[in-house]
Design a protein that fits this description.
- This protein is mainly β.
- It is built from one helix and seven strands; from the N terminus they run E-E-E-E-E-E-E-H.
- It has one helix at 105-116, and strands spanning 8-13, 19-24, 33-41, 49-54, 58-64, 70-78, 90-92.
- The strands form two sheets. A four-stranded antiparallel sheet has the order 4-3-6-7, with no helix packed on it. It has a three-stranded antiparallel sheet with strand order 1-2-5, with no helix packed on it.
- The longest helix is centred in the C-terminal third of the chain and has 12 residues, at 105-116.
- The termini are far apart.
């Protein structure tokens, strides 16, 4: 069984503690395919984790560490567990959460100063 899969980063949901990524791929034309497995890890070709995602063509992986690079590849498998070669590889680095600028900060401080009777000079 030879399946050609193309992984594509669709979108990500980010947070400081854990990030996620949604991967999508083309279905295998092999009628014996019953599901897919996603492999991922911190170096190209060095997959330390896997997720069996079933007979779907997209999956969301969660609990990724922001700022860490991840490499992904997929395999297709059949009912007897026979697994294809790895698909082409893609990578993704969930961005670190950035602080948004506070707007109107001076106005808030001046308002609080007036409220408490201080001079906001």
């Amino acid at each position: 069984m030879k399946a050609r899969l193309i992984l594509l980063l669709l979108c990500s949901a980010l947070s400081a503690a854990a990030a996620s990524v949604t991967l999508a791929w083309d279905a295998s034309p092999d009628a014996s395919v019953t599901g897919y497995r996603i492999y991922f890890g911190p170096a190209s070709g060095a997959y330390t984790n896997s997720a069996t995602v079933g007979n779907v063509t997209n999956a969301t992986l969660t609990n990724l560490k922001a700022g860490a690079i991840y490499y992904f590849a997929a395999t297709a498998y059949d009912g007897s567990g026979l697994e294809s070669a790895f698909s082409n590889e893609t990578s993704y680095t969930p961005p670190l959460q950035t602080l948004l600028p506070v707007t109107g900060f001076r106005a808030v401080i001046a308002s609080l100063a007036r409220f408490f009777g201080f001079s906001a000079g």
